[in-house]
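Notes from the 1:1 (GR / supervisor)

We went over the backlog. Supervisor wanted to see one worked example end to end before approving the batch request, so GR pasted a single chain during the call. The sequence is below; no edits were made to it. Supervisor asked that the structure be written out right there so they could see what the output format looks like.
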Amino acid sequence: MKTRTWMILILSVCRQEATGQALIKGTVYNKSMYTMRGVSVMGTSGAGTVTDSLGRYHIKLAVGDSIYFSYLGKSTARYPVADIPPGQSFDMSLQANTDSLPTVFVHPRDYRTDSIENRREYEKVFDYKGPNYLPNLRLSPRGGIGGVGIDLNMLFDMKKARRMEALQKRLLEEEHDKYIDRRFTKAIIKRVTGLQPPALDSFMVQYRPSYEFIQGCETDYEFYHYIKEWGKSFSADWIQTHPQ
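Structure output shown during the call:
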């Protein structure tokens, strides 16, 4: 029986070496040993998948690739595919509690810290609810058409309201830009697409995602897939327009 098992393992290794691909399967658990859904399973080459409702995954990666797991913006170490015994389940335990963490992306700590400090500094602006114009409207026995006058204080309040709303909008835009900068980095793009400057710089400008798009990616794999696919298209166009 043992001889048969070793023969199967040897054949699996030979098959992997011949194709250059390895099929890796397993289950991802949290620290309480409950299965985790929505975990991104990635290869350093950019290939990836997501665990299903039972925490299971399967992915094909090159033998020279490495696999890692990402959940809520936090990644594990990289594990070389060549070191994973073929035919055996490659299970992973993550230090996360799915009972208290939703399966959506959470801002990196640095961004959240900057955001909180920014909002504390401009607390009055972010807590601003806008003026209530109607109580400032007063009827006057003089002035205005038909004897109706408008309190000048109301006009000043309206101007102040517009300034406050414009400032609030600008501060939110700054927060969103910082968030995009934290996620859409040169290091990530270079690793996923293999692009090098100056092509890398052009890609970052041309395909910079919106804040809403990144928020809409429930897993890291969805975001990296966007970078990988558009990176292929960009690389093909770049080669044609910049022949060496």
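Supervisor's comment: Residues 152-183 form the longest helix (32 residues).
Batch request approved.
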